[in-house]
Specification:
heterodimer; A: mainly alpha; 11 helices; globular; B: alpha+beta; Rossmann fold; OB fold (Dihydrolipoamide Acetyltransferase, E2P); 2 domains; six-stranded mixed sheet; 20 strands
Chain lengths: 230, 369
């Protein structure tokens, strides 16, 4: 049966099954957008937590650490409630759209990215900041150079953030609704096929999902290791 | 360094600097000046506030009170601090290289200061060459040995041709041969460039070799400022003495060298010391007080394995605890620490004729520039 599934996956891919391509590309699009957003917000937030001492920092750090293990279904529930038609943000009519999924996945990956960035910047020698400042760096140049210095663990932040949301199913199901042609992504499709008993199709989707995750991580790892050995 | 001769204002002037951590004052310096083109060395025991003082002078940290002025202009706001940083260079105990090539590290400061590409190239080449690491330019910084990394961090500072060079225990983390080689290179570069230098160290030998002026920091306060000779041979108080004083400091010239035994002319006397230094070299001979033996002249000939036996007259007898500090004039003063009982039994007083004896291996010889 597994072999059948892999065969079918291969067949679907080779023939460019439009349904599969649509599902896979939506997966990439939604999770890619969510990861990008969480990088934009998470890297500055994580750097601030890692590099600057300010009152309330410890509280925020534990908040981020908790967020790194946030159950996707809880995120899905909260986002659903907010976006519900008569909920606080119901007026936006976002529920059961890809945007809702991006929001939910952003909430999942943001603490992961922030947490990894915090750890990456914290492990830098505190005297390195003084050295860079003494070379004549402005504050902005300082932060840029420190992030560059922490680039290897930062790539790990991207991988972890993306890995968490591309493989997440609970929140996407709850806020996206697994609507065929609109909000169906690889994970939700796998759940659907599985419950229909169409295992070989589910296996085919899983293989594609794994291949996608592998490919993205492979590329990032190449970048990471190349900059390490350069 | 536009007009070092005409600029009468001190290069650095600190007023009323203080820093406290948790209610405890770790730095309290009412006034401090660093002159143009001098090598100013800050020494003191661990935790005496040396690094804090250096960070305040560079304005890498802000003192809680007080001001730091450069050429008479106080550094007040953040903009002035950035401008100040772009005139200085700081070398820390750790090499603190970024994870990139040696070239990128050495040129980083110049690029941050917006120098032209040609200028960056020319200066980097010159200083990589000067510190003997030109062949390492393309290497990754983290593949360097600790000595090479230190050379890279010194090159990164000197390419900036700073108005003031700050160093915080730059050679402490290196092993002894590496350190000796680097210290000699560094010393000759300092003599060539005459950059105004502020250096923190706890190594009194480094201070002796490099300093124009020395300040001793004790518990965050300046205990003494003076030339190395003043500070080391006449410490201001007992605390300074116990930190800086460990032995006699004799200045001389090597006159002969025989298989690791150097003959050194000190004043009118000649002494033997274990050293490979070649004849004609100006040297400083360090001789611990403990290693000097005082003997009374006797009619029988005394046989001793000690290479040195100088005649002299006791100048001063000064008791410290259970010991007595005896100063003997052998053409130059030599201090010996003897037990109080020995001093009493020998009847040592001012004017007693004695021999001061010490082994050649007890000495330590340092080259002077």
């Amino acid at each position: 049966m597994i072999f059948e599934g892999i065969k079918q996956a291969f067949w679907l891919l080779v023939h460019g099954d439009p349904q599969i391509i649509k599902i896979a590309s939506l997966s990439l699009l939604v999770s890619g957008a969510a990861t990008l957003l969480s990088l934009l917000v998470g890297i500055p937030a994580g750097s601030a937590l890692g590099l600057v001492r300010f009152p309330g920092r410890k509280f925020l750090v534990s908040l981020v650490n908790t967020g790194m293990g946030l159950p996707p279904v809880v995120v899905g529930l909260v986002v659903s409630i907010f976006l519900w038609r008569n909920g606080p943000l119901g007026i936006l009519h976002l529920l059961y759209t890809p945007s809702a999924m991006v929001i939910a996945q952003f909430i999942i990956s943001f603490p992961i990215v922030a947490g990894f960035t915090m750890a990456a910047t914290q492990q830098l020698d505190p005297k390195l900041s003084l050295q860079i400042l003494s070379l004549g760096a402005s504050r902005v140049q300082l932060v840029w150079l420190l992030l560059k210095e922490a680039r290897l663990p930062l790539l790990a932040a991207i991988m972890a953030g993306f890995g968490a949301v591309i493989s997440e199913v609970g929140a996407s199901m709850m806020v996206g609704g697994n609507i065929f042609g609109q909000t169906r992504v690889l994970t939700t499709a796998i759940v659907g096929e599985n419950s229909k008993g169409d295992f070989s199709y589910a296996i085919a989707l899983s293989v594609i999902l794994l291949a996608l995750v592998f490919l993205v991580n492979f590329v990032l790892t190449l970048v990471q290791q190349r900059s390490k050995s350069r | 360094m536009s007009h070092p001769q005409t600029d009468l204002r001190p290069m650095i002037e600190a007023k009323d600097l203080s820093v406290s951590y948790g209610g405890q004052k770790v730095l309290d310096v009412p006034s401090l000046e660093v002159h143009h083109n001098e090598v100013f060395v800050i020494i003191g025991p661990n935790g005496s506030g040396k690094t804090t003082l250096l960070l305040c002078l560079t304005r890498l940290t802000s003192p809680q009170t007080g001001t730091v002025s450069y050429r008479g202009v106080p550094v007040l706001d953040n903009k002035a601090v950035l401008q100040l940083h772009r005139k200085l260079a700081v070398v820390f105990q750790e090499s603190l290289l970024l994870n990139t090539s040696v070239w990128d590290n050495v040129t980083l400061g110049l690029r941050l200061r917006n120098f032209s590409r040609d200028e960056v190239k020319a200066r980097a080449r010159k200083w990589l060459e000067r510190f003997g690491i030109a062949s390492l330019a393309r290497r990754q910084a983290r593949t360097l040995s600790s000595g090479e990394a230190k050379r890279a961090s010194l090159a990164r500072a000197f390419v900036l041709q700073p108005e003031v060079l700050f160093l915080d225990e730059p050679f402490t983390a290196l092993d002894s041969p590496t350190r000796q080689a680097l210290l000699e290179d560094f010393e000759s570069v300092l003599n060539e460039t005459r950059i105004t230098t502020v250096m923190v160290t706890h190594d009194r030998n480094e201070a002796l070799v490099l300093a124009d002026r020395v300040t001793v920091l004790m518990n965050g306060r300046i205990a003494q400022i003076g030339t190395p000779a003043e500070v080391f041979s006449s410490p201001a108080d007992e605390k300074v003495a116990s930190f800086v004083e460990a032995g006699n400091i004799l200045r001389g010239v090597v006159t002969a060298q025989d298989k690791g035994l150097a003959t050194i002319q000190v004043g009118s006397q000649s002494i033997d010391a274990s050293s490979e230094v070649v004849p004609g070299t100006d040297v400083i001979v360090l001789l611990p007080y403990d290693d000097v033996t005082i003997m009374l002249p006797s009619p029988e000939k005394v046989c001793s394995s000690a290479r040195n036996c100088l005649t002299g007259e006791v100048l001063k007898v000064f008791p410290i605890g259970s010991q007595v500090r005896v100063t003997v004039d052998c053409g130059f003063p030599i201090v010996a620490l003897v037990t109080r009982r020995s001093a009493e039994e020998m009847g040592l007083t001012k004017g007693t004729q004695v021999y001061a004896s010490f082994k050649a291996v007890s000495t330590r010889v340092i080259k002077r520039h």
